[in-house]
Amino acid sequence: MDVAPKLLDMVWAILIFGAVIAVILGLAALYEKRGGRRAGWWFVGPSLVLLAIGLVYPALKTLWNSFRDAAGGSFVGIDNYTSIFTNSDELVVLRNTVLWTLVTPFVATAIGLLYAILVDRAKGEAVAKAVIFLPMAISLVGASIIWKFMYDFRDPAGGTTKHPIQQIGLINQVIVWLGGKPYNFLLNSPWNTFFLIVVMIWIQAGFAMTILSASIKAIPADIVEAARLDGVGGFQMFRFVTFPSIRPAVVVVLTTIAIACLKVFDIVRTMTGGNFDTNVIANEFYSQTFSAANQGLGAALAVVLFVLVIPIIVYNVRQLRASEGR
Amino acid sequence: MATVTYDHATRVYPGTERPAVDQLNLHIEDGEFLVLVGPSGCGKSTSLRMLAGLEDVNQGRIFIGDRDVTDVQPKDRDIAMVFQNYALYPHMTVADNMGFALKIAGTPKAEIRQRVEEAAKILDLTEYLDRKPKALSGGQRQRVAMGRAIVRQPQVFLMDEPLSNLDAKLRVQTRTQIASLQRRLGVTTVYVTHDQTEALTMGDRIAVLKDGLLQQVGTPREMYDTPQNVFVAGFIGSPAMNIGTFPVSGGNIEVGPARLALPRDVAGKLTSEDDNKVTLGFRPESLDVTSESNAAAFPVEVNIVEELGSDAFVYGTLRGSLAQKDDAVITSGAGDNQVIVRVDPRNVPMKGERVFVTIRPGEEHVFSAATGQRLS
Lengths: 326, 376
What we know:
Chain B: InterPro entries: AAA+_ATPase, ABC_transporter-like_ATP-bd, ABC_transporter-like_CS, ABC_transpr_MalK-like, ABC_transpr_MalK/UgpC-like, Mo/tungstate-bd_C_term_dom, NA-bd_OB-fold, OB_MalK-like. The structure holds two protein chains of two kinds. By secondary structure, chain A is mainly alpha-helical.
């Protein structure tokens, strides 16, 4: 391996980056006193150009491509969209994406919230939180590989009495120990999608817990005390004081996870490759574009995904503003 | 309505040696307005929170009426509390805030509405009932917090520095409103403040605490006229009392050139630990400006004159053959070696001038130099 030139490249990159920052800061210092609208455009300009090249143009190009055929040659109208909403395979893709987006946010948030309340001001809170937060630090692909081992299935029929098949998947081995029959988790639709969703929940519950725990701690102590004096008991405290106080944070967590689920790709790609009816929009869009060489359909899927994400983002931003404006 | 009794109530915070509240004995009469006052960290808020049930009582007991509430849950003590930061529920309207305790208690909706409206009328909040707390001013929030307490119709009101977040003018205004409201409702009230003016103006009786220990309990007049020790003497009154330690010889207290007769019964209480000294306190308003020829007069050099219209205060330094060897021979609200004198606002001395003052007979406070306890 040629490590030296790569290192040299990295050093160059850092130097160039530093030079660009220095130029920007120098310009800023130069224009600081004069100010004005024209100076403003000089600063916004580069960002606008980069946004146009990196974001706006590809988006428009994708939209354009979604109305064209597999090779991107001739115009086909809304054929690509029609097939997304009529083709049985594509309908399964849509169904799975809906499942992901509905189930994951609520379950992950519920688990995170419950956990945050249980460990709040308990002994060893920091350790307990670190344990559930750790999966967040693992890449989605890494998490998928871990869970692939968890779910691993070896068909017992393949063994002999002398050399019986040993389960290497943790869950199946536990099932065998408990006297059950091993189960192929990733094979049977629609349950296999739920088993994939478990991986996302495992990751996102830590995220939900962290955000919600912080906002629970931000509730002023005297409000909790006032509630105690008003006669509020355990569950009532949650219903009338804790939950209304953290409601904006809950909404932000729900929508953030929902967006992550709409765009989920790595888990499905790594664990099933979209087989056995576990496909989702992002993975199907990838497969159509790069494997099946159907650019038009891929672009249409990307547009559908984009349109689905927009309302959630709008709602998310509004909630963020509302929670800051309090 | 009920009495409140602290019986040797003690609170020790975990991990600390010294009790935050040490053996507090206090009896509050039915319908009385009692003010707990003291410098920060004196245990006044802790005492109140012990009564509320928000702090554990490590030793001793607390009674509301005849009922021992030491181990009773806060909600079952039949009390209502007004917090310093009001502690209003931000997501509820004013009406919901005020009626929340009743709602939790399962009171019928019509009755809640009626009681909330009554309280809102008393507090002039009727037009704000449907607003959220964030849409109210500080004074209005404070009134909502009061309203929340009133609606519950409790046996005892607890108030923890409820005026400290208001501006100076509103504070003076609200202070009289709260006092008159309490007289009208006749509910036993325990009120915590660090402001001695608030204590004097509002309380039927005042309890002064310091370092977790009760210093003195009494009516505002008693606290002002006969403070039981040097701390209470210096704490109650504005501007603060002038307090200094002076030698005694031949039955007289020697304040510089002045000779003040020390009453025989007081002189008899001096012990060997006092080392022939007494701590003498005299209020700025107990001093008369006189001439040098007066045998009981001592000189004060004017540093500044503070004119308040109705009054004028001279901040000066004791002068003459006075024990200047000791720097901090005398202290007042203005600092060490400073004396505050109230003078006729129509006839104020000039800066740098030397005035001679006498203590009006009978208005001096004599304390033991060793223990700080009152002798006279």
